[in-house]
Amino acid sequence: MSGKTLLKVAGLHAWYGESHILHGVDFEVREGELVTLLGRNGAGRTTTLKAILGLTGRRSGSVEVMGQQTVHLPTNKIARLGLGYCPEERGIFSTLSCEENLLLPPKVGPGGMSLDEIYEMFPNLQERRHSPGTRLSGGEQQMLAMARILRSGAQVLLLDEITEGLAPVIVQTLGRVIRALKAKGQTMILVEQNFRFAAPLADRHYVMEHGQIVATVGKDELSAKAAMLNEYLGV
Q1: Domains of the chain
Q2: b/e code 12-45 from CB counts within 10 Å (16+ = b)
Q3: Is residue 110 scored above 90 in pLDDT?
């Protein structure tokens, strides 16, 4: 692996109330990499993203963002170190137009995309820029949720189940967008149930089960570890 480490998670535990969800998660992401968190529902993948951002309530262990320890920081300060979060529920503001949603998030770093660049990448959003959030289709809302964090200048994008419930043509569009972002050197963590979507995109796959990383699979190991992946994922 080359490039500096932008995110390093070590011994991360997280709780929702009294429920202990993460049991010592360890992984890292280097500059320009795309890594996935794979696993069945309930494995702890989404909780891992939320715990990185301090959204789970109690957590312990180590989360270094751009070399800075963040486990005791509030969420707003963690995000401003250079993290962009695209949640599974999308979080579109229904009373705002598509373009107002795009303009809402604050800058967390230099190099964010301009509106023109975003509209070039997502032509659908330019066509719907004056439409209220409630009028957008599911696919358009997902594009908007992704596009919104591209304006922020975030160095690491946390993408949670971005293909869930979407038509194949929209999934293909999102795949093209991710490949284009990766070609520009964007660093990404992708939580994804659709292994066939994730497999050709990622540099490395972290397989989760019962709140832990149970296997690491490089992009050149997919064939050799197919049986193991099938056992954990049922792919």
Answers
A1: 1-82+156-162+187-235 (3.40.50.300)
A2: bbbbeeeeebbeebebbbbbbbbbbbbbeeebbb
A3: no
